[in-house]
User: What shape does this take?
Amino acid sequence: MAQKPAARKTNPSGGVLPQVLWKKTGGSYLLTNDAGHYAWLKEKDFAAITAGRLAETGPLFAELASKGFIRDRLDFNDLAAKWKKKNAYLNYGPGLHILVLTLRCNHKCLYCQSAAAGLGAAYTDMSLATARKSVDFALNSPAMGITLEFQGGEPLLNWKALKGTVEYARKKAKTRGKDLKLALVSNFSLMDAEKAGFLLANEISICTSLDGPKDLHNKNRIFTGGNSHGETLKWLKYFQKKHAAQSPDYRVFKPGALLTVSKYSLSRHREIIDEYARAGLEDIFIRPLAPIGYARNLWDTIGYEAKDFAVFYLKSLDYILKLNRQGVVIREKTAAMMLDKIINFQDPGYLDARCPCGAAIGQIAYNYNGDLYTCDEGRMVGWAGDDLFKIGNVFRDAYKKVMSNGVTRVCVVSSNLEAQPACARCAYKPYCGVCPVYNYATQGSLWGNMPSNDRCGLFKGIFETLFALLKKPGNAAILKRWAGK
Amino acid sequence: MKGRTKGTKAQRHRGTEAQRHKGTKEMVLDSGVYCAEAVRLAAFVFSDKAGIKVAPRGGTSTAVINGPDAERLAGEFMNEVLNQQCRLDLAKKNSKIAGIIVTRALLSAAGEKAKG
Assistant: This one.
């Protein structure tokens, strides 16, 4: 009896997709899953797989099976390991501890969200006793790696407390067996050789603000005591030289800079990026202004539409990639952190884009008076008169009490993407995160409303661009280098 | 989602607007579409925006809004009811994984060990 020719082998049972997230972009479908895998499908292949008609013998089936997109070919060990790696932060406590050493500042930046106090407001200086108590509190976190970040205002205005805190923290961390990292965010206007020497000898990483070319920087960052741009570049160069030379006695970190995009920046992406490249900075962190704290009241004057920032961001990314192709080493930090999740299945420590977000469980902000906030943005809301995000005080509250209080819990619950209707089905969920403080400040609710949320719109735009860029081999090679750094 | 009346949600909403006074608006919500819990949660969210009274009535819930711009508030209230209903529907599907993530995050941060 003649045999029937074998039917083309399809996968009717396993063809039905397991729990996946998908998004149609142009004529293609982007598939993602909770492990962090992604795959692109043509429309006909998407239709075939959802109907259980995808041939098992083809390379596409093999690719989808290896990534956990075929129901009866799931490698649970691999998928679980990837999920665990990507969400490793769920097993630690807060690692970032932001000490606001003073609210005083000698700059009057247009956008200052923390609404810095004048130079005479010495009552907003953190005392050494409060700083020490804050260090003790921070070291109670179960996280083995603790970063103390000194912020302000301008933290160098409270040099005595900074110096005393560094010495105390180094000693205490050693006895507690913690891996302590120290960081300073300064405008450099009060930097001198003695302070720089102390910072270097104590292995403090240093970050400043650079908003672009001289005229733009000085327009945004008003400093009546001199040339803010000049001081910034002078000390950046100083620390870069020290980093290049290193020291036999201590590690010298490469200095970094933060960009804040004002409405005056929106038309000048090339000049800003060129300025960073000229200054030898290999990272540019393009952050939008957020209508949080006092900035909310100034929004009509200093704010801009989210779509305008999105255009600025995408043009910037395009230009940075062009520079990369010309051999210039520079990367955009938000993209690099998202890519680390997409490509390497790991958490880059970006507390704003976690599920749940880093509020309280990933970071704590310590105000000058010892008040504790879920994060620096939460502190800014508090400084503007609404203490919703206050979670305690270093003198009055024990660490465990702070971690279990209602504000901490509600921030964790409200930033859990599995409980957010729009997010739970979003193809970018495995890499994204929401911010309860932003939601509260802009939409009046910790949960927010994602379809009309500007931050959500911006993140979606960034993800859409990154995934589109990853499709092109030339761009993908560059982006993989960004994620690998 | 089961509905007792036919048509889109917007049509059902328009079709059940029973009363319209200046500063007062009454809405009748089909319980097959919006459960009583979603209506109560939305009323709670709205409690600092306007006076609102909700009550079950047969297979429906009624909500009466009092405020200076009741028409607009009623629209916002209906959006919030929909929002809460979506959350409740999602919770039915995702509450286990959502609970695991929240529990692990909070216990780890407090220095306690989570099971599993």
Summary: The longest helix of chain A spans residues 306-325.
